[in-house]
């Protein structure tokens, strides 16, 4: 599958289903241009994974909402759950390993841990409110 360009209007819908890798980039960014062929090749290899690109120049509000401070930045979502975010490009082998790790995740377990962490974070706030 080829990469898809994502905008503020399509971002939420794009990340909701399956595995989605998001490359935050800009046309003037040398490291972004160097990472693009690696990202494109992985997209061709993994037709079941969405490889999305967000042009930070065209979508500054979206980039700001996600705290993008350096480009390229790679983010990974699975079924709408953010799992990974890292500034800088990845070599092809590391990108392949990342896709394999995300595929292997038990999302029920991930959601359970997220819920536990949210409850733990709420407990001190509830104690202070009492």
Q: Keyphrases for this structure?
A:
130 residues, 5-stranded mixed beta sheet, 5 helices, 5 strands, 22% strand
Strand content: 15-25%
Helical amount among residues, as a percent range? 40-55%
Structural class call reads alpha/beta
- Helices and strands, in order, run as EHEHEHEEHH
Structure explained in plain terms:
- The chain is an alpha/beta fold.
- 51% of the residues lie in helices and 22% in strands.
- The chain is built from 5 helices and 5 strands.
- The chain has helices at residues 8-15, 30-45, 60-65, 92-104, 107-129, and strands spanning 4-5, 19-25, 50-55, 73-78, 81-87.
- A 5-stranded mixed β-sheet has the order 1-3-2-4-5, covered by helices on one side.
- Strand 2, helix 2 (30-45) and strand 3 (50-55) form a beta-alpha-beta unit.
- The longest helix is centred in the C-terminal third of the chain and has 23 residues, at 107-129.
- The chain is globular, with a radius of gyration of 16 Å.
- The termini are far apart.
- The mean pLDDT is 93.
